[in-house]
Design a protein that fits this description.
Spore Coat Polysaccharide Biosynthesis Protein SpsA, Chain A; 9-stranded mixed beta sheet
Length: 265
C-alpha cells in the first residue's frame, strides 16, 4: 500500500471592508479551488454594510476575524488586517486576497507547484485580469527599465503569494506606522526587489482584479497634488528600505523632480 504524501497547506487571507456585494464571489472562488488542503481566513475591518450576513452563510467553512480597532488610514488598516490573518494562519504558503477580487480555479495549485519547483522563490506575483462591469482585460505586463525611478513594476495585492517564513520577515520589517499613503503591495514589491535584486512575476493570469469607482487609488489621479505627495513618500520609503538593508541610497531624476515639485506646491 502506497503512503500518501500530505500536500502543503495553503492559507488564503481575505481582507474585507464594506464589500458585501462581492464577498460571496471572493470566498466561493477559494472554496472551488482545485487545491484542497487549504484554510480560508477572512478579516473584516469593521464593515457597516451587510458583510456580516455574507460571512454568516460561510461560517462553517471559514475562519472569521473581526477587527475591533480601526485607524483613519486605509493603508495601515490593510496591513494590520493581513497581519492578524497571518497570526491566525497555519499554512506553509500564504495567499493575499482583497474581498472584491477573486481567483481562477487552479491558481493555488499552480502557484504551489511553482514554489516547490524553485526553492529560491520566496514571493510570487501572478498577473491580474482587469474586471470591469462589462468587460475583462488582460494587459501586457512588461517590466520597466530602472533608469529614472527606484522601484519595479508589480501587480496588485490580490496577486501576491509567499512562503510562510518570508511572510514573517515581511511583517517584521514592513508593518510600521509610517508612509501612510504607501500600501502593502508596494512595500512588499520594493522590499523584495531591493533585497533580492528582482521580483518574480508568474506570467499567468490567475486573479480577477475588479476596477471599482470607489477604489482608494482613484483619489490619486495622475499628476494631481495627492499623486505627487504619495510619490514623495514612495521615494522616502525606498530610502528607508535601503537603510534597513544596508544598501546605498541614490538620487535619480524622478526623485529629484518629485522633491522639487512638492517643495513648490
Amino acid at each position: 500500500m502506497k503512503t500518501q504524501i500530505k500536500k502543503p497547506k495553503a492559507s488564503i487571507i481575505i481582507v474585507n471592508f464594506n464589500n458585501a456585494k462581492y464577498l460571496g464571489d471572493c470566498i466561493n472562488s477559494i472554496l472551488k479551488q482545485s487545491y484542497k488542503n487549504k484554510e480560508i481566513i477572512v478579516v473584516d475591518d469593521k464593515s457597516i454594510d451587510k458583510s456580516h450576513e455574507v460571512l454568516k452563510k460561510f461560517e462553517k467553512k471559514i475562519i472569521t476575524i473581526k477587527n475591533k480597532k480601526k485607524t483613519s488610514e486605509g493603508s495601515y488598516n490593510q496591513i494590520n488586517s493581513y497581519y492578524k490573518g497571518y497570526l491566525k494562519s497555519q499554512g506553509d504558503y500564504l495567499f493575499f486576497l482583497d474581498s472584491d477580487d477573486y481567483f481562477k480555479k487552479r491558481k493555488i495549485e499552480l502557484l504551489i507547484k511553482k514554489f516547490k519547483s524553485n526553492k529560491k522563490f520566496d514571493l510570487i506575483f501572478d498577473l491580474p485580469i482587469l474586471k470591469f462591469k462589462n468587460k475583462e482585460i488582460k494587459e501586457n505586463f512588461k517590466q520597466k527599465k530602472f533608469i529614472i525611478s527606484s522601484w519595479p513594476r508589480f501587480t496588485p495585492q490580490s496577486c501576491i503569494s509567499l512562503r510562510r517564513d518570508f511572510a514573517k520577515e515581511i511583517f517584521k520589517e514592513l508593518k510600521i506606522k509610517k508612509f501612510k499613503t504607501i500600501w502593502f503591495d508596494f512595500r512588499i514589491a520594493v522590499y523584495c526587489y531591493l533585497k533580492n535584486k528582482n521580483i518574480y512575476i508568474f506570467r499567468k493570469y490567475l486573479t480577477y482584479y475588479r476596477q471599482l469607482d470607489n477604489s482608494a487609488s482613484k483619489e490619486y489621479k495622475f499628476f494631481n497634488k495627492k499623486w505627487w505627495i504619495r510619490r514623495k513618500q514612495a521615494h522616502e520609503f525606498v530610502s528607508f528600505v535601503n537603510k534597513k538593508l544596508n544598501l546605498k541610497d541614490s538620487n535619480n531624476f524622478d526623485k529629484v523632480a518629485t522633491n522639487v515639485i512638492n517643495f513648490f506646491r
